[in-house]
């Protein structure tokens, strides 16, 4: 007890928010593995409030001049003491692999009380703005404990909850992510608290807004309600009195840009997504390999669709996992190998789906097809020189190509699947290419020909 | 300390005219004559209020033989306690046994000494109910894929029947004794039955009231065995406390209107599984004959409710939801359809049977309709290799991929070859996709096209239908030529169909999606 309160007092004296938050961590520091245990044993339910008040000092020795501030911190630490007991209990049960009740749910509820005490202190204005890192810690571990509590609940009750009472239908609508959804609500309270702070900006809780927004994104992604994240983005966008993003801590900026990028990516707004993700990659620390890998996971498919360019092996080199994911696809796109592309997409499907990039990568097939059609165009060669042309006149590529040529190429490229391919389908695919501006020209159905634009503009962006 | 009424009174039964006027008969449906004698027998009783100080509404008393009293005593003996059977259940059963005996005039003839105790009877009842619930009737509906592009839910219904035994509606009425109770030849007949049922219902609820009052009387009397029972009894009367165990229904009526439950259901208003099976057959029949969706939907909802309150989770439950989903799909009631789908998804996870691939395919098609990429991704994430090989699922996945790649040619071929009732779902986005395909064709083609070409590419049934479609979107100016030689000029339609396409994709109406 003394040690934690001692550190707390020092952090208060130094006005160091992060040191302060460290005293409220549910994870013991590396150099003092038994701290939580010792703290838990140092007092009991009956004496805890008095002990903490004593430790904070009374009268002239008091840490805080205001009685209300002291009370608020006592509330926080009493809640923290109780939570530590429940968390240790849950961890013990987990290590024994033997749960008796809902240990993690109890721990979650106890931790929620800590967060509530912190929110209360801030809402009432007892805590100065520099102490908001305590709420970061609170929110962060609330999410961690919620996931554990939900997992324990699903493990014991099974995935499906059937109606016990008056429901009309057999399966109850009770959710398997009950606590995590509650976390999202609690984080939302912190979010509104920060956003609504009217203190002058140099001493405002607004500086914590992106940290909490990032926590919210993380939580929403886990419970699969990305739409809620879009609301957060909109709220932040509409908040005009917020300082520019660049003035926030870099860590907050990077994470925020990453999540915003992924949200736009999932919304199929690839241009915005690319901007955000590129920013995130630039901001991201060069040694944060895992984070860079995450950013690239979305940036590469984005880039493929917006600019039709493929990742180089130099880019993929440091990330073997990304290389395994994208290299086969990139090769097939380059070669215009449809069968190979389909096979590579199918073999990586599980991983792609897990990362939510399957539906985007699938559209890379268009680029593979474009490259294939372009080969047909190139192989058709040049128009024979016309009479009267000067001998040094530039050679002109043949622009009228029979549909059957394209048909044969696509058929070959598709391998076994191509055997049943009819010409109408190829015509349809070509119309689609033209529609998507991957190819310029038109189909002449009655003549069975494709007329491509002259002057090296038939396949925009590819030089021909 | 007072004793329960049946222990207080003397077994001697003599007539006492002074109390003949006492009309209040509470709690027992005994024949009038018997009650009279019983009521009058209070003169010799030792302590009864009714006899010593007459009240405006005097209470009725019955007399019980020593045998009956012993039987009651044995029922509440601690040795006779069977775990899992609560005191009030025993009480209830006991009352019904004695009541029954009184009603059938067998109070004195029953061999009470050898009659099994009420808790034993309850136990047997439960075993029976359990056995009833687990009987699997040969109704596993196995849907084979049909070449029909669009099937009616009726096809699915009749196919769900076991082929070996004809469905109830194909049997003659004497084979199915309930048949003549269900469909009424004349309106009077129906009315008569209705009245009879109402009477029955009134009676039972009155009976319930009486029981309730009796209970209260016992409670106030501080019976030796009621001290611990009072709390659970309070729980029973409190509608806020939901009973833990399943209700065991006793209602024998096949049809029942849907009402949202606001308190614990009464067993007499809930139909047990064998009745529900007959209800389903009846509903299938009515749907086929009358096609009245409002009625059928309402009945299905009450059917689902009865299954829920009785905790019936088995293949029959799955069948009910599947059939309701199909009917809702056919009628375009997406709210109800989505409710059923949600339930089915959870039920399938319990491996109770049914047709998971069929409904998985519907799910995929529905997410195509709503453009829901998040959910689509989730579905893909959950697909197993076996799922993907199922014809219906494979078809839905092909539809998805064709649309993702803009391959309208393949898409419309798949549309014409949709298994089960998937075409109802595809109809919801076919127009939108036709517009998208038109936008492609208009932009991709340089010279005029025969209308036949567009008809075939976009899966229209006739050139006429195709022309109507183009015309509906203001494309009258695109046509050239006449008769069989009608051609469409694509250059004139580029802007027209591009804006129509954009408008169609802008908004997807989602009803009741969960």
TrEMBL record, chain A:
Which SMART domains does this one have? Answer: PAM
Question: What is the protein name for this chain?
Answer: Protein CSN12 homolog
The record ties this protein, via InterPro entries, to: Csn12-like, PCI_dom, WH-like_DNA-bd_sf
The family this protein is said to belong to: Belongs to the CSN12 family.
GO MF term list: double-stranded DNA binding; RNA binding
Cross-referenced Gene3D superfamilies = Winged helix-like DNA-binding domain superfamily/Winged helix DNA-binding domain
- Domain PCI intervals: 254-457
Automatic annotation (TrEMBL), chain B:
| Record Gene3D superfamilies | 1.25.40.990
**Region Disordered, residue ranges:** 41-60, 140-247
One of the record's GO cellular component terms: nucleus
> Which stretches does UniProt call biased (Low complexity)?
41-52
**What positions does the domain PCI occupy?**
333-502
Superkingdom of the source species: Eukaryota
**Compositional bias per record (Basic and acidic residues), positions renumbered to this chain:** 202-213
Protein's recorded name:
PCI domain-containing protein
What lineage, starting at the top, does this entry show?
Answer: Eukaryota, Fungi, Dikarya, Ascomycota, Pezizomycotina
